Automatic annotation (TrEMBL):
Native source organism of the sequence: Companilactobacillus zhachilii
Signal sequence extent: 1-30
InterPro entries: Adhesion_dom_sf, Fim_isopep_form_D2_dom
Keyword Transferase found: no
Protein known as: Isopeptide-forming domain-containing fimbrial protein
UniProt keywords, alphabetically: Signal
Length: 819
């Protein structure tokens, strides 16, 4: 908003005089409150109070010229340059009149070569005397409103923002706001600065505005996202100090603008939907640069609803009422305009909150501002409990994890090279459940060898490229085991962190960056404290383990133990069934089967010719044990995974389990040296020729390239293509083929000795081209070479004479041995 905002201020000022005649219906406590830096558990442990003025932080985007800045208060000088701080008004009493809210304001901006690029409307910076009070004056930031009817004026900034008007009650709203402010500076685990303002918030309900009576301690916090992306988290913590229960709805509103913060330039930009109900974005061009601002709920306690609307004194105008649904309810696709052209704003809204005396709540949103052609990667790790839906997690529950990374960049391209998820103790992965989905497409199964049971680590080379708003999701299931509890078997919280790595090739970067994402899992001990373990060993060995290497013809021994801990609250009733069906590649020796019942000593047990057996009651401290042998019959390399199950399990505490699954016992079959997995599709996308020759790079590779080579001799992998062979040549539905010249048609980036080499573009020949010039010397049953053939590792030279159509062809893979 510009000059028209000053006119609106005048009108509201007249109306507020009338409202002062309305009586107050309730009075908030004004008792003195002691504010301390650790009153809220915000995760920062090194807070220091600063009274000399604000500080300004910057997060690198491209490492040289572009940064994302954040601060409370002023962050630019009178020439529009990014400053280093010194604004001493950030803890001054705020002023809320008309449409404006001043002082203690959140300030997120773009630092481009030292120039301040605003993300919200600013009141100008050329005047030394007024620039501190002009920091985002028309943005209310956080607001609190009752969960019920409001006045005809709706949710206005002076009556509902948390900063309020402590020194000037004449605004007639009863909104005293935040007093006794303190400003703190700290650093997060990644070394990024964190800033917060804390204070005592009070409001006395005004019968005209119906804005509620509250007595709260509040912390507003700015910090960098822990994901290492150029994203800032804007957060608020609230504690109810009143003896009465506090009920409210939290909102956050800003008046968007992109560009120079002086004047009205770029104030009238549309607001768009990000899609997937995750937030909004704004984009515009200023001074020859293309900018994009985005706001998401991709963080703990993110917002539930949002709207984009043309500027109004009522910040929930488009919601209808403060309890109404927003644009998220329409499930808009990405790019849907929410405002049209005009003086745009947006409002975020959280579901209603109820706090008893002394209880706290947390609210947050993420904000990023970027410019073409930079990638802003946003990683997420989430889970759902597939066993129960009551919000609790117990030992034995199956959790489904989704590891998602989205490119929120602008004109960007990011090559997704690696995902590493080292799971904590207490999570038992089902390797057969691992899948990869590229931008919402049908999930593709991943190789079970991508999971290392010894280290409990998943390592996946996705080999895909993500452009604007595209995302990739890796999913898997895992079972909670008692290792997730404390050493004494009590409730515990485990943290699982995944790391997403890739290169911002759209910005011509060559160094890989890693973006972490974590999720906390609170685990409760079950009433039935049990363990269900299956292990394997080579026949003749003495110790069982979760994984062994074996060859065709070898005999392996399995052991299954289901036990109930002596400290368990419940035990297992009789009637359960223990089952184990061997997968293909194993031949059961029925004469080797031995079973020990719950009361049988280790010297006892009995033999039978089948594994499946009914189970008597298993008391506390008792176990059921099964041992048997099998011969490896698999004629190809790969992993044979086997689990046992207990079905129809009823406990003495009346709990029922339809099926419980043991830990997995793996056999890595090492019969021969061979390629065990090849990609199913290499996609070069589409293009318009315009009568010109073109060179295309592949945008994605579906599937992995995995080699089994336990033999201790050097080897190499080749890929071949014959453009003259009708069985393999690229051809469209009309029978047209791709013409090629003497240099070749398809090229691969051939490395020298590892996948991190820059590589040389080498034509793929009919006789085969090696992936690297040196031989491979990694001798194991699952050598993953996907990083050699992922996105950006293939070239296709297209002649101007190429006819239109969708072309498909076949590559041939080979394994060569050094002699």
């Amino acid at each position: 908003m510009g000059m028209n905002k000053n006119f609106k201020l005048f009108l509201i000022g007249i109306f507020s005089i009338f409202l002062t005649l309305i009586s107050f219906t309730q009075t908030a406590s004004a008792a003195s409150v002691t504010i301390g830096p650790y009153d809220f558990n915000d995760g920062i442990t090194n807070w220091n109070q600063v009274t000399s003025g604000n500080q300004v932080a910057n997060i690198p985007i491209d490492g040289t010229n572009l940064q994302l800045g954040y601060a409370f208060g002023l962050a630019q000088d009178t020439k529009g340059k990014v400053s280093t701080g010194g604004d001493t008004t950030i803890t001054s009493d705020s002023i809320s009149t008309g449409m404006n809210v001043q002082y203690s304001k959140m300030n997120v901006f773009l630092n481009q070569n030292g120039n301040y690029v605003s993300s919200v409307f600013q009141g100008g910076y050329s005047s030394t005397g007024t620039n501190r009070q002009n920091v985002s004056p028309t943005s209310p930031d956080f607001m609190i409103a009752p969960n019920g009817p409001t006045s005809l004026q709706g949710i206005t900034a002076p009556a509902y923002n948390i900063l309020g008007n402590p020194s000037g009650p004449s605004n007639g709203t009863g909104n005293t706001g935040l007093v006794s402010k303190k400003y703190y500076v700290g650093t997060d685990a990644n070394g990024h600065p964190a800033y917060k303002i804390m204070g005592h918030f009070t409001r006395t309900n005004n019968s005209g505005y119906k804005n509620g009576t509250y007595d709260l301690e509040i912390e507003i916090l700015l910090r960098a996202s822990p994901t290492n992306s150029a994203i800032v988290q804007r957060e608020m913590y609230v504690k109810n100090l009143s003896t009465d229960t506090a009920e409210f709805i939290t909102l956050f509103g800003e008046d968007t603008k992109l560009g120079d913060s002086n004047g009205l330039h770029n104030d009238m930009v549309p607001v768009y939907d990000l899609g997937n109900k995750q937030g909004i974005y704004v984009q515009d061009t200023y001074s020859g640069n293309n900018y994009r601002l985005f706001v998401t709920n991709n963080m703990p306690d993110g917002f539930d609803s949002y709207i984009g609307q043309i500027a109004s004194t009522n910040w929930v105008d488009k919601f209808g009422t403060v309890t109404g649904s927003g644009d998220e309810a329409k499930d808009n696709p990405k790019g849907t305009s929410l405002t049209g052209f005009g003086d745009s704003t947006y409002t975020l809204k959280w579901n209603p909150t109820t706090l008893k005396t002394g209880e706290t709540a947390h609210f947050g949103s993420t904000m990023g501002v970027t410019s073409k052609p930079y990638s802003i990667m946003t990683p997420e790790k989430t889970y759902t409990n597939e066993t129960r839906s009551d919000g609790t997690n117990m030992v034995g529950d199956k959790l489904k994890f989704n590891l998602k990374i989205t490119n929120n960049g602008y004109g960007a391209k990011w090559n997704y090279n690696k995902l590493v998820d080292k799971l904590p103790a207490g999570l038992q992965v089902d390797a057969s459940s691992m899948t990869l989905s590229n931008n919402g497409e049908k999930p593709q199964p991943l190789a079970e060898s991508d999971y290392d049971a010894t280290t409990n680590t998943i390592t996946v080379p996705p080999g895909i490229s993500l452009t604007d708003d595209q995302y990739a999701t890796i999913s898997f299931t895992a079972t909670l085991t008692k290792d997730a509890l404390t050493s004494s078997g009590e409730e515990n919280t485990i943290t699982n962190t995944a790391e997403f790595s890739g290169i911002d090739v759209g910005n011509n970067e060559t160094v890989q960056k890693t973006f972490p994402a974590s999720v906390d899992i609170k685990v409760q001990p079950p009433r039935l404290n049990y363990s269900f373990i299956k292990q394997v060993k080579k026949h003749g060995d003495t110790s069982y383990s979760q994984s062994i290497d074996a060859k065709k013809g070898q005999v392996v021994d399995y052991q299954i133990i289901y036990s109930v801990a002596s400290e368990s609250k419940d035990s297992v009733n009789s009637g359960a069934t223990l089952e184990d069906t061997l997968p293909a590649g194993l031949q059961l020796d029925t004469s080797s089967i031995k079973i020990w019942g719950p009361g049988d000593p280790d010297s006892g047990g009995y033999h039978q010719d089948h594994i499946n057996t009914g189970v008597n009651a298993i008391g506390k401290g008792q176990r059921v044990k099964v041992e048997f042998s099998a011969t490896v019959t698999a004629s190809s390399v790969g992993k044979i995974t086997n689990t046992a199950t207990m079905s129809n399990v009823n406990t003495t505490g009346n709990q029922y389990f339809d099926k419980q699954t043991s830990t997995a016992a793996d056999i890595n079959v090492q019969n021969v040296d061979a390629i065990t997995k090849v990609p199913t599709n290499i996609d070069f996308g589409s293009t318009n020729m315009y009568g010109q020759n073109k060179v295309l790079h592949n945008t994605s590779t579906t599937g992995e390239l995995i080699v089994s080579h336990p033999t201790n001799t050097p080897y190499n992998v080749t890929v071949a293509y014959d453009n003259d062979n009708k069985d393999s040549q690229l051809i469209n539905s009309d029978g047209d083929t791709l013409p090629s010249d003497a240099t070749g048609l398809i090229f691969i980036k051939q490395r020298t000795e590892n996948d991190t080499d820059p590589g040389t573009w080498t034509p793929i020949t009919p006789s085969g081209t090696t992936l690297q010039s040196d031989n491979f010397t990694d001798y194991s049953s699952a050598v993953n070479l996907t990083n050699y053939i992922g996105a950006g590792n293939w070239q296709l030279k297209i002649s101007s004479a190429t006819l239109p159509g969708a072309y498909n062809g076949t590559l041939t893979w080979g394994l060569t041995e050094s002699v």
